[in-house]
Specification:
11 helices; alpha/beta; TIM Barrel
Length: about 325
Amino acid sequence: MKISDILNTTTKTLFSFEILPPLKGATLDEIYQTVEPLMEFNPPYINVTYHREEVLYNELPNGVIEKRVVKKRPGTVGIAAALKYHYKVNVVPHIICGGFSKDETENALIDLHFLGINNVLAVRGDAERGMKSFQADPQGHGYAVDLVRQIVDLNNGKYLDEDLENATATDFCIGVAGYPEKHSESPNYESDIRYLKQKVDAGADYIVTQLFFDNQVFFDFVDRCRKAGIMVPIVAGIKPLSVKSLLQILPKTFGVSIPDTLVKEVEACKDNKAVRAVGIEWATQQTLELIKHDIPAVHFYTMGKSDNIKAIAKRCF
């Protein structure tokens, strides 16, 4: 079932979550250990992230620097298929611009189509580690809007090989990312909403937001979207704080702000166990308020750990 159909017809706020592939060498059991505790809350879909390659430099005994390109968390398509058929649940694998040519993107989408997976989240992705800014594959896309357009082309039966005859159209539902506090590379809120509208106008069916810790930030974001004519469902993204170091990491990595009240509570914690408890309580109150506002879904970023997400879900869903 298409995620947009689920979001557009739901009569209550839904629970969904995102997992990341484990490090190379791990087994599927590790994914199941994260997912299993959350299935009692009947998520209508599960997202599976994609992580681009990393470039490593090793100095050889002769002093030569060797460059290696490594994918540390492969398996997005396989994991998505395993979850879909093991749990009988909709899955949303991420498709990214970074590290993909247009041909590789098309082939990945064809694989998903063959597997019966018709939901994707189209995102640009992060800059390559060690690079100051995002660099697209020379034969790929530099912006998520172009990725959306390629997926829409497939939905219309238009493949990169223009000589194909009787090409079968795909039927992907396309999600895209939204940034309540604007993308870190956008000069201002107005331009950020303008770029988001371009993705929706290109064919995106719904939006899932970057994490935030102040619900008013989310409500203001939704208002800006609606005033700009963006009328697709908007899903709220939540990540509970779990360790004290996230106070520095999250603002730097994701460009999000953390309310001073939450900062003081976390700083007063004696250890990360206490931080985890604070994070659960804060995210629980966020979620309860979001549910009162009848948003279509709250989407949780697990980062491979589900115990704190389960504690929140038990109180809210």
